[in-house]
Amino acid sequence: MNSLPVITAVDGSDHSLKALEWALDAARRRSAELLVVHIRADYVKALPLPGALPAMPPVDEVPVLASVREAIEGRADLPPVRYSAVDGSPAPALIELADEAQLLVLGSRGRGGFASLLLGSVSRACAARAACPVVVVPHAARTESVEAAGTFGRVALGLAPEETSDATVEFAFEEAGRRGAGLQVITTYPVPFSTLALMGGYLDAAGTPESPREEKALSEAQDERLGAFIERYPDVAVEKVVTAADAAGRLVVASQTADLLVVGRHRRRVNADSFLVGSAANAVLLHAQCPVAVVPA
User: What region holds the UspA domain (predicted)?
Assistant: First the structure.
């Protein structure tokens, strides 16, 4: 069992409190401790340059953490919860903390973000650089339509058979197993330009492929890549999808009926349609309607 904590950051914003709820559930499912962190960036900015540094307020007196503690104390089935206040810049501080975490859970925007921004700079930086998987929980305005439907009992995984790491696939199977959920594995190949020009926007060409040879080859590659995981996780029902579609668009559509969307993060991009920290994965973080887990290679 992984003894490292699940970490979430709170700043008093509704976005961070939404992420806190997701993190509480994640820690409970993992039988892990939850570390609730508040980054005191404003305190650092206010420090005088000359002379000795003033004493920092103790954790018990940090208003944001006190508010969280008051809100969740007494709940049934709480995981072990610990609180910490860290002084510094949020993104670097959280990336450093992630070195000793099994999961980092963040809201898509923080207190300091502009309301018009779809993804905050802190969550973006952590998703790109943290050593552990990072779950970005979208803000309420983006999830209203799907949250009304409750849970879907499905985890979705974006799989490029030759690129997606074993760690990413393993994470998706483990999450589906913890939730008693099915796993939808989505592999795409480029939609012919002529089809896009005629249809406009996102197209799922399942059932009417224009490149049957490519679809067959990808289906075989997907089967080969998933075989060992299916054997290790016999209780996870797997739905395999291979379709001609824009990778990001197809995953965003999948997020409308999933409880979690899992994508891999790699050091470099191989092609424009790959599920990496590039245009496709970034678009998923911007537009997905369910939480997105970004798993490092």
Answer: 6-138, 153-296
Q: How many domains does the chain have?
A: 2
Residue 264 has a CB neighbour count (10 Å cut-off) of 28
Same domain, 28 and 58: yes
Phi first, then psi: give them for residue 216, nearest 5 degrees: -65, -45
Q: Between the CA of residue 282 and those of 116, 187, 245, 270, 286, what are the distances in Å? A: 17, 17, 17, 15, 6
CA separation for the pair 235, 177 (Å, rounded): 7
CATH of the domain at 62: 3.40.50.620
Which range of residues forms the domain containing residue 112? 6-137
Let me know if residue 1 belongs to a domain.
no
Q: Is residue 115 part of a domain?
A: yes
**Average pLDDT value for the chain:** 84
User: In terms of domains, do 57 and 149 share one?
Assistant: no
**Dist. CA 282–CA 4, nearest whole Å:** 27
Cα 106 versus chain centre, distance: 8
pLDDT tens by residue, 148-175: 557 899 999 999 999 999 999 999 999 9
Residues 6+ apart with CB under 8 A from 32: 2, 3, 4, 5, 6, 26, 79, 102
13: number of Cβ within 10 Å? 18
Spatial CA neighbour of 161 closest among 236, 250, 206, 227: 227
Higher pLDDT: 68 or 271? It is 68
What residues have CB less than 8 Å from 265, skipping those under 6 apart?
127, 128, 276, 277, 281, 294, 295, 296, 297
Number of H helices, E strands in the chain: 11, 10
CA distance 182 to 259: 10
Q: Is residue 261 within 8 Å of residue 288, measured between CB atoms?
A: yes
241, 244, 246: which is closest to 213 by C-alpha? 244
Backbone angles phi and psi of 30, in degrees to 5? -95, 0
